[in-house]
Amino acid sequence: MQKVIKSTDLNADLKNILSVIPHDKLFILTDRNSEELCFHLINNLDEIKNAGKITIEAGDNNKNMESLSSIWTFLCNNGATRNSLLINLGGGMITDIGGFAAASFKRGIKCVNIPTTLLGAVDAAVGGKTGINFNGLKNEIGAFAAAETVLIDSVFFKSLDYSNFMSGYAEMLKHGLISNESTWVKLLQFDTRNIDYQILKELVVESVEVKEDIVEKDPLEKNIRKSLNLGHTIGHAFESLSYTMKQPMQHGYAVAWGIVCELYLSHKKCNFPKDKLWQTLSFIKENYGTFYFGCDEYEALYELMKHDKKNASVDEINFTLLSDIGQCLLNQTATKEDIFESIDFLRESIGA
Ligand SMILES: NC(=O)c1ccc[n+]([C@@H]2O[C@H](COP(=O)([O-])OP(=O)(O)OC[C@H]3O[C@@H](n4cnc5c(N)ncnc54)[C@H](O)[C@@H]3O)[C@@H](O)[C@H]2O)c1
Ligand SMILES: O=C(O)C(=O)C[C@@H](O)[C@H](O)[C@H](O)COP(=O)(O)O
Ligand SMILES: [Zn+2]
User: Fold this and answer.
1) Which atom of ligand 1 is nearest to the CA of 38?
2) CA 217 → CA 180, 213, 321, 332, 334, distances in Å?
3) Which of 30, 68, 119, 288 to mutate to test the pocket of ligand 1 (most atoms within 8 A of CB)?
4) How far apart are alpha carbons 280 and 262 in whole angstroms?
5) Where would I find the H helices in 38-180?
6) Which of 34, 42, 114, 211 should be mutated for ligand 1, with most atoms under 8 A from CB?
7) Ligand 2: centre distance to CA 37 (Å)
8) Residues with CB under 6 A from ligand 2
9) Alpha-carbon distance 330 to 213, whole Å?
C-alpha cells in the first residue's frame, strides 16, 4: 500500500525515505516553477544535491508525449537502471507525468511524490493515477501505478498564487461533497482570501484522508473510486475545450464548474437538496468567477464527454451523482438534453 506522510520535518522525512527505499541512482523531476520555488527546500541533503535533475516546461499543455519522451531520454542517457528512484517534485502535472515515466521506464522503476501545489497534495500525488494528455483529451494515456511514498508538506503552498490555491481547493470541495456534511460546511466557511495556514493544514489532512480511504478500497476505479470523479465528466470537457480555444483553464476551475453542472443533474435526477446546490454554487460563483463560452460549443463538449473513462459504451455518458452530501450514486447516465440543460444552468448562474 502507498505510504502517505504528512510531514512535520521535510528534510528529515525525505532523508528517511531515501534510506528505506533501496536504489542505485536518484533522479529528480521538476517543472521550471517547482525547480525555482521548491527545489531549494529539499536541497540540504547531499544525495539530493548529487541527483540527476530533469526539468520540463510548466503547464498542463506540457503534460504530453514530448515531455514524457524527454524524461525517458534523460533517464536512458544518464545511467538509470531498473533499480533507480525518481522523485517527482511539483504539482499534479509533474506527479502525473513523472509517475507515468517511472511506471513505463524499463517496465517500471520506483518513484516518490513530493507535491508542491495544494491540488497535488490533496489529490494528484496520491492514489496512483498517472498519465499524459493525448489527442486533445485529458489523461488519455496512462497507468495505475502508485508512488512508493507521498511526502506532503504545506510549506510549499506559501508561494502559490491565488488561482493555483483555488484550483486545489476545488478538489478539496469535491472531497467534502462526496464524504460528509461537516467537512463540506468547514470548506464553505473557510476564508479563501485571507488564508489561515494552520486551519488550511488541518483541512488538507482531512481532505487527503478522504482520498486515501477511497483509493485503498478501490485502487483501480472499478467501483467507489468513481466518486472521486465527481465534477470531472463535464469538467474535463471544459478543460479540454479551453485548450482548443487557446484559453487554458486550470484543472480545479474546470472541476468547480463541472461540479455545478453535475450537482444540477444530481438535483434533477437524484433529489440532491436544492439548498445545498445553491450554497455550493454561491461559493463557486464567488471564488471562481466566470468563463465565457456559448451554446455553439455544446456539441464539442458532448463529443469530449464521450471519451470519459467511466463510460461503459460510446453512446452513454457516465456520471457520479449525489443524492445528498456523502451519498454517492455511481454509474448514472444522463441524456444529451439533460447535460445541455445543466450547462445552461451553469452559464445562467455564473453569468457566462
Ligand atoms: N492523478 C490524479 O489523481 C490527479 C488528480 C487531480 C488532478 N490531476 C492532474 O493534476 C494536474 C493539475 O495539477 P496542478 O494544479 O498542481 O497543476 P500544475 O502541476 O500544472 O501546477 C500549477 C502551476 O503551479 C506551479 N507550481 C508548482 N508548485 C508551485 C509552488 N509551490 N509555488 C508556486 N507555483 C508552483 C506549476 O509550475 C504550474 O505552473 C492536471 O494535469 C490534472 O489532470 C491528477
Ligand atoms: O483519483 C481519482 O480517481 C480521480 O478521479 C481524481 C481526479 O481529481 C483527477 O483529476 C483524475 O486525474 C481524473 O482521472 P480520469 O480518470 O478522469 O482521467
Ligand atoms: Zn481532478
Assistant:
1) 31
2) 17, 6, 19, 20, 27
3) 119
4) 12
5) 46-49, 65-77, 92-104, 118-119, 162-179
6) 34
7) 26
8) 123, 127, 129, 138-139, 171, 221, 225, 228-229, 232, 309
9) 17
- Dump pLDDT digits (tens) for 240-257: 999 999 999 999 999 999
Quick check: CB of 103 below 6 Å from ligand 1? no
Indicate the SS3 state at residue 7: coil
- DSSP characters over 153-202: -GGGGGG--HHHHHHHHHHHHHHHHHH-HHHHHHHHHS-TTS--HHHHHH
Say how far apart CA 206 and CA 212 lie, in whole Å. 10
Whether residue 121 is predicted with pLDDT greater than 90 in this model: the reply is yes
For the CA of 139, the nearest atom of ligand 2 = 18
Mean pLDDT of 51-68: 98
CA of 127 to the centre of ligand 3 (A): 12
Atom of ligand 2 nearest to the CA of 127: 1
Other C-beta atoms closer than 10 Å to the C-beta of 204 total 20
Its pTM stands at: 0.98
Task: Give the C-alpha separation, 114 to 87, whole Å.
Answer: 7
CATH architecture of the domain with residue range 167-350: Up-down Bundle (1.20)
CA distance 240 to 243: 5
Which residue has a Cα nearest atom 12 of ligand 1? 92
Counting from 1 in the atom list of ligand 2, the atom nearest the Cα of 308 is 17
Q: If we measure between CA atoms, which residue out of 198, 341, 351, 172 comes closest to residue 267?
A: 341
C-alpha cell at 218: 478501490
How close is the Cα of 292 to the center of ligand 3, in Å?
21
User: What percent of the residues of the chain are helix, what percent strand, and what percent coil, each to the nearest 5?
Assistant: 55, 15, 25
Fold (CATH) for 3-159: Rossmann fold (3.40.50)
Domains of the chain by residue range? 3-159, 167-350
Asked if this assembly's ipTM is beyond 0.95, the reply is yes
Q: How far apart are alpha carbons 87 and 43 in whole angstroms? A: 13
Centre of ligand 1 from the C-alpha of residue 341, in Å: 31
Closest CA to 120 of 154, 143, 85: 154
